[in-house]
Design goal:
Elements (H helix, E strand, L loop, with lengths): L1 H11 L3 H16 L4 H21 L10 H17 L4 H20 L7 H21 L1 H4 L5 E2 L17 H22 L2 H11 L1 H6 L4 H27 L1 E2 L6 H14 L4 H21 L4 H15 L1 H12 L2
Antiparallel strand pairs: 1-2
């Protein structure tokens, strides 16, 4: 037990490169002010990828409909701003909280059955919510979405600007705080039980781990974080549409984790950076065929091996 505790403490210590990475990330809206909008997009996608990695990489729960929580958080935050008050932080908490409740309800559906069953169930939840967002036009705006979502200043002082600098700062601050929470979680005894469930669920049950409870809790937490990412998107873009529930949004996050790797906190972040930059650069060069080049990159990644791409970062991260 003592050696396991020491191992967890060793993994939880901050590495030098991690500190440098986050310092640069938090300063990037100032250092790269012209690219604040793309920075904001990358940060939101990275947070979304982190939420999926909690259940996929650390717990072994597959999902094809994680966009359900992302979209639910986006619409909740947008409706909160329109009908209650435009405070960004309260709207963010509301979106994350509502998504947490949805995750808790949906966790019942993924406790039983095989991986294929979970894929279908999670996909079905996202499709149902997308259809509801289309049909309930009196509430959601239908296919046109919720437009003109006006947000108040962050902390009552920092107004959202057209260049996206405040949005980038805001998204980065929220993502960093949630990253600290996730990092603490996965390097705790609770996180160790999640990896035990991922590696062998029957063995985890045999040694006394409450598997169903652990899965329900981590699924709900993952849903809340995905909802926070969706809330950030709605607040910083002043818009929410049925597209936030789309299947390709869930598929993109899976591709991001393929690029960066699962079961590793920085996998989702690095994958988001690579994917969004490739998407932005290639689509500006060839708007019609950018998906072809993304596919070619993924094939090259599989042939060469992700470890060879990520080895320099992982080596420095251990220093």
């Amino acid at each position: 037990m003592e050696s396991a505790s020491l191992s967890l403490q060793a993994h939880s210590r901050w590495k030098h490169l991690e500190t440098v990475f986050w310092l640069f990330a938090l300063l990037s809206p100032w250092l790269l002010a012209k690219h604040a909008l793309i920075i904001n997009e990358i940060v939101i996608v990275a947070l979304f990828a982190l939420s999926l990695d909690l259940i996929l990489g650390y717990t072994g729960i597959v999902s094809l409909g994680h966009a359900a929580f992302f979209g639910f958080g986006a619409y909740s935050a947008a409706l909160f701003a329109i009908h209650v008050m435009p405070d960004p932080l309260l709207g963010l908490l509301f979106g994350a909280g509502i998504s947490l409740l949805l995750g808790a309800l949906c966790s019942v559906l993924i406790l039983r059955g095989s991986d294929l069953t979970r894929l279908m169930v999670t996909l079905a939840v996202a499709l149902i919510l997308k259809e509801l967002s289309n049909k309930l036009s009196w509430l959601t705006g239908g296919t046109d979405g919720l437009q003109g979502v006006m947000m108040g200043p962050v902390l009552g002082k920092f107004d959202f600007d057209i260049r996206g600098i405040t949005a980038a700062w805001y998204s980065l601050a929220v993502t960093f705080l949630l990253f600290l929470l996730i990092r603490r979680l996965v390097h705790s005894p609770f996180g160790a039980t999640l990896t035990a469930i991922r590696d062998n669920r029957l063995r985890a049950m045999a040694i006394g781990i409450p598997v169903s409870t652990r899965i329900a809790v981590i699924y709900s937490i993952s849903a809340a974080i995905a909802g926070a990412a969706g809330a950030l998107l709605a607040q910083t873009s002043s818009f929410a549409s049925p597209d936030v529930f789309a299947f390709d949004r869930s598929a993109d996050i899976l591709l991001i984790l393929v690029i960066g790797g699962t079961g590793w906190l920085y996998g989702g972040i690095i994958g988001a950076i690579v994917f969004k930059l490739l998407q932005d650069v290639i689509s500006s060069i060839t708007p019609e065929y950018w998906t072809f080049w993304i596919g070619a990159f993924l094939i090259a990644l599989v042939i060469v091996g992700r470890e060879r791409f990520l080895y320099p970062w992982k080596w420095f991260a251990k220093r």
